[in-house]
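Q: My labmate handed me this sequence with no annotations at all. I'd like to see what the chain might look like in three dimensions before we decide whether it's worth expressing. Could you predict it?
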Amino acid sequence: MKQTLHFFLILFFFFSGANAQRVRIDTEAGSLVLELYADKAPATVANFLRYVDGNRYDGAAFYRVVRLDNQATSPVKIEVIQGGLSTDSTRMFPPIAQETTQKTGLKHLDGTLSMARGLPNSGASEFFICINAQPELDFGGKRNPDGQGFAAFGRVVEGMEIVRRIQQGETGQPGPTNAYSNPLQLLKKPVRILRINRI
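A: Here is what I predict for the chain of 199 residues:
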């Protein structure tokens, strides 16, 4: 009886983790491990993995950091770091439909991975990681005037100290214009993404 119970426990733990997809982001500042919520945000995860599997993020960067001290004109303050291809449209796939947190049941908590966007349904290659809970990024939140929030689709499970270190980088760098380019939030020295791989 004990052996049978032990066998079923092994099977349970093996199969319960079988659907959890993880990726490793190696950067100049260190490495992060992220768990992706494919069961809750399947389209957003599939989009992200399309970039990962095509090596399209290799050589990209974390280039924007948002802190309480560099968003003075915004009535709703957040704390995130943002990475991706920035303005390199040659490596971007078409935007996807937005999986709002109202649909997925996810929340923007400390370490949440989410898709950046301007207009609704415009998310493509850019992503961000939350520092501390950011409820104004959820559906109904006021960070974006349309109230649709952003598409959370994963979380950092290792390396939040790296995320916080990147967030403290010196900002104020004029850069290429995109939907997110507030010069006060652009890193003077973007943190290069060496590679992102499934693990």
